[in-house]
Specification:
It is a single chain. The chain is mainly α. The chain has one domain (about 5-64). It has helices spanning about 5-30, 35-64. Helix 1 (about 5-30) runs antiparallel to helix 2 (about 35-64).
C-alpha cells in the first residue's frame, strides 16, 4: 500500500470512529449516568476533537 493510500484509510477510519462516538456513546452515556454535567463535558470535548480531526482531514485533502 502506498503512503497516500494508508493515510487516506486512516483519515476515513478516524471519521467513522468519530461518527460512532457521537451517534452511540454520547446518547449511551446519557442513559447510563445521571451526571449530565459530566456527559456535557465529554460531549463538548468530543465535538472539539471531531472539528479538529475534520479540519485536519480537509487540510490533508487540499495538499494532495
Amino acid at each position: 500500500m502506498k503512503d497516500k493510500e494508508i493515510e487516506e484509510n486512516y483519515i476515513h477510519m478516524r471519521l467513522v470512529l468519530n461518527d460512532c462516538v457521537v451517534e452511540k456513546l454520547i446518547p449511551l452515556a446519557l442513559v447510563l449516568t445521571s451526571n449530565v454535567d459530566e456527559v456535557a463535558r465529554f460531549a463538548t470535548q468530543t465535538w472539539t476533537e471531531l472539528r479538529e480531526n475534520n479540519e485536519f482531514a480537509a487540510s490533508r485533502e487540499l495538499r494532495h
